Amino acid sequence: MHVPSDIEIAQSCQMRPIAEIAAAAGVDPQYLELYGNYKAKVDPRLLREDGREDGKLILVTAINPTPAGEGKTTTTVGLADALRRLGKNALVALREPSLGPVFGVKGGAAGGGFAQVVPMEDINLHFTGDFHAIGAANNLLAAMLDNHIQQGNALGIDVKKITWKRCVDMNDRQLRNIVDGLGGRMQGVPREDGFDITVASEIMAVLCLSSGIPDLKARLGRMVAGYTYEGKPVTAHDLKAEGAMAALLKDALKPNLVQTLEGTPAFIHGGPFANIAHGCNSVMATRLALRLADYAVTEAGFGADLGAEKFLDIKCRLAGLRPSAVVVVATVRALKNHGGVPKAELNAENLEALEKGLPNLLRHVDNIRNVYGLPCVVAINAFPTDTARELQLVEDKCRELGVRAALSEVWARGGEGGTALAEEVLRLCGEPNHFRFAYSAEDTIENKINAIAQKVYHANGAVLTPAARKQAAELEALGFGGLPVCMAKTQYSFSDNPALLGAPDGFTITVRNLKVSAGAGFLVALTGDIMTMPGLPKAPAAENIDVDENGRITGLF
Questions:
Q1: Average pLDDT over residues 508-537
Q2: Is 435 marked active-site?
Q3: Which end of the chain has less Cβ packing within 10 Å, N or C?
């Protein structure tokens, strides 16, 4: 029997015109900008002019990812659909997928099965052009920086201290480290350079944290592109670049509205990676969802040690948001993988491996409840191979922590398969919570990094290399010490070693580089061998993607 793929399910859906979805969401036509029949942008003026009270914010996060899959986006979409089936006014707010993973190893990022956002192909490819605008703005600053040096370098920029890279939204390891400006004096100043993937650009973070065009321009102007020979930061404002960059981004700043397979309105906007950036959709999209709905369901990338930590310690801190409940997604298969079972053997019942892998889930749950003080439910994303004994073991271990586990069958049944999870989320939203941050932003840089390492990762602490310790002292001397910290770390482990699965202890986190994202408003600490430009795998997903003579795309997840 043929099991339909995600793209086949999405393509069989009868989408409703986006104007109808907007009306269902309570968006007046004056705020709607149509991008064809099934996509639109919403003018953020609505936030200033609509007097409705905000709804409750629900965060969906997960265990550390494995090759077995967790289904965080699928659960997020299915939960919103389930809430609407229960008669609740719910909207979903997600990130836009990057082309890097789409053509690389992960595939699309629009949910799965019968819990997807559509039009799936558009969302996973060019969508409304936001990422292209971000790339253009990023590269405009790079061009203006190098042109300033070429035209006499009045600011005294040290070409060996340039921190701003060019970007492209593709996994292209060849561009990580390059030499450019070759060919003679009129062709530019020769120097070492490199590319980040677009989702790692600070402009992506700036766009996602901005509250409007004035805030966007101010943040763009504060971005540090390099340093002078005297060690003074050189900003985009110094290069007179923020106005033109903001002009490129004015439409990208507006959140995108689409729909789920069941017609639930969905905002999809921004897409910073959670292992090298802050991993959340835009503040503006989240605020629109909160303003228009009683329940706004959003997600944070990768495991809770990355996405949820940054959502809570960075996004909520900078935007004044307060979650009402948190969902931690896990699968029995992924937990067995954390317990040492290879992917090829995950279909067989293995209670011993499951019990060995469960501490990964339980540590995330403990962090949400006891580090951040938030009510929490575990969503077990169901697979047909899960046995009753395996599901019962997960439920029993969660109960020992005082947390309920709800079976989620949204992949196979859509919103109908998420009603048990939705009912538990509604119960949690009615409970008091004691939300707090993992650290004070006013602490020293090293103490903030240690707080994340010890409280969230459960490491012995963080070790800053001599270069990183020098950078921390320099950043504090420049006045950046009071910013929150964005940890760039492998997504596969609590540690900075991707091979340490489960819930390791007795390790330290090595910070090898520190830099400021002054426009975004946080510091970035690079750990381990984390890269800001991924590479393609041996057999990239792009090899299986095609389009026929009628324009119908296949192979896209």
A1: 93
A2: no
A3: N
72 counts as catalytic:
yes
Whose CA is closest to 385, among 344, 325, 444? 344
pLDDT tens digits, one per residue of 155-192: 999 999 999 999 999 999 999 999 999 998 889 999 99
CA distance 457 to 363: 9
Cα of 482 vs its chain's centroid, Å: 23
> Is 538 marked active-site?
no
77, 75, 91, 85: which is closest to 25 by C-alpha?
91
**Rounded to the nearest 10 degrees, what angle do helices 202-209 and 242-249 cross at?**
70
- The active-site residue out of 39, 56, 88, 95 is 95
383 catalytic residue (yes or no): yes
The pLDDT of residue 204: 96
Catalytic residue among 73, 74, 235, 490: 74
| This prediction's pTM | 0.95
In the residue annotation, 274 being an active-site residue is answered as yes
d(CA 456, CA 309): 8
Q: Could you confirm whether 74 is annotated as catalytic?
A: yes
Catalytic residue of the set 311, 411, 480, 557: 411
Task: Please indicate whether residue 419 is annotated as part of the active site.
Answer: no
3 state SS of 280: strand
Residue 195 is a catalytic residue: no
**Is a pLDDT exceeding 90 seen at residue 113?**
no
